[in-house]
Amino acid sequence: MKYPSKIYAESLLEVSEKKPQAEILRNFLRLVRKNGDFSKLPKILYDFKKLYNKKHGIKEVKMEMAREDKNIVHQIKEI
Fold first, then answer.
1. Where does residue 64 rank: exposed (0-12), middle (13-18), buried (19+ CB within 10 A)?
2. Is 8 exposed, middle or buried (0-12, 13-18, 19+ CB in 10 A)?
3. Predicted pLDDT of residue 1
4. What is the pLDDT of residues 27-49, one digit of tens each?
5. By C-alpha distance, which of 41, 38, 48, 50 is closest to 14?
6. Distance between CA atoms of residues 4 and 6, nearest Å
């Protein structure tokens, strides 16, 4: 049965805090393959990352600089 990637991501997020990670991933991948949705895995992981970051208050930032300044890069990594 085909499910949207967001459903998989929400389910993975819900159980990821309850069991050991290796067991969860093994069972999750088995389920995705069984349902014929393995090709959706990149989108599932993308959705999972977005949901996880939102739940834990993590902001993702992309920064581009014309020239690399090691001082600035070091300061940003500390944030």
1. exposed
2. buried
3. 61
4. 999 999 999 999 999 999 999 99
5. 48
6. 5
Instruction: For the chain, report the end-to-end CA distance as a whole number of angstroms.
Output: 43
Name, in order, each residue with C-beta under 8 angstroms of 55's C-beta and a sequence gap of 6 or more: 13
Continuous segment of H or E residues that includes residue 77: helix 70-78
Q: Is the dihedral of CA 26, 52, 39, 4 positive or negative?
A: positive
Higher pLDDT, 23 or 5: 5
SS3 letters across 3-24: CCHHHHHHHHHHHHCCCCHHHH
Residue at token pair 């992981």: 45
